[in-house]
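> forwarded from #structure-qc
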């Protein structure tokens, strides 16, 4: 990808100013990490080394927490937990409540992936306490959405839907919130599907997909296609179901997901 190559070219150039290099790295990560997770796993090692060499603890933290996130997406949960432990050590050394919340939220995600929903709830609640303490409404909304997702995983889709609708009503309008709303609609669409509300499920999933594609959010795009495949299969629309299933599997393979979706 030309834009990614350009940003990584700046990041990898040791003759450049460190702040310029870091700015290029963070822009590249924000825009492309889900599309090119393998490349960024390697670059995060370089970020860690730079952070350690220059005593930039925030960059050391970011290297660990982001590595954990990518490993979790790939299904490598034990390695993800190790990365979160390292991130927590750095955040604690800075007495950084916000970043301690991020560690707990990421642990919650990893436990949910492992289907340990009691542990997931425990860590999401801890994350919420940290975020509420510092008054971060945006991150609090994300954690509440994660709590809704745990209830969905426990097959309580009525309660999950109630959580999602409450968050939707509290989320401000504007482009800066469209990614969160897309994730919300992705999850909400699944709960509608599980409750037999197929028309709403399709509409919400298709709406989510458009925004997720705009953000190149690869793992979420794959999840959305997987959901649509399930819905159309239940409706007996086999051609559409197979189309979405093939797209999801191809995306998972391209992203290096261990187990698919």
């Amino acid at each position: 990808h030309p834009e990614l190559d350009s940003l990584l070219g700046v990041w990898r150039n040791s003759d450049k100013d460190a702040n310029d290099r870091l700015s290029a790295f963070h822009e590249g990560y924000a825009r492309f990490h889900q599309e090119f997770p393998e490349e960024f796993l390697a670059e995060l090692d370089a970020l860690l080394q730079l952070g350690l060499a220059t005593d930039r603890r925030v960059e050391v933290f970011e290297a660990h927490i982001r590595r954990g996130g990518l490993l979790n997406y790939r299904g490598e949960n034990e390695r993800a937990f190790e990365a979160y432990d390292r991130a927590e050590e750095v955040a604690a050394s800075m007495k950084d409540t916000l970043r301690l919340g991020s560690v707990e939220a990421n642990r919650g995600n990893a436990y949910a992936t492992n289907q340990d929903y009691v542990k997931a709830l425990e860590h999401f609640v801890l994350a919420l306490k940290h975020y509420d303490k510092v008054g971060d409404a945006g991150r609090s909304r994300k954690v509440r959405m994660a709590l809704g997702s745990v209830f969905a995983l426990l097959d309580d889709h009525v309660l999950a839907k109630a959580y999602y609708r409450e968050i939707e009503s509290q989320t401000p309008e504007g482009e800066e919130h469209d990614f969160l709303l897309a994730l919300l609609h992705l999850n909400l669409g699944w709960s509608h599907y599980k409750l037999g509300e197929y028309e709403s499920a399709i509409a919400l999933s298709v709406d989510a997909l458009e925004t997720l594609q705009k953000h190149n959010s690869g793992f979420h795009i794959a999840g959305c296609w997987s959901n649509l495949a399930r819905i159309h299969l239940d409706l007996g629309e086999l051609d559409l179901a197979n189309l979405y299933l093939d797209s999801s599997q191809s995306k998972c393979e391209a992203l290096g997901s261990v187990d698919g979706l």
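QC bot note: Residues 31 and 215 are 7 Å apart (CA to CA). The two ends are 26 Å apart (CA to CA).
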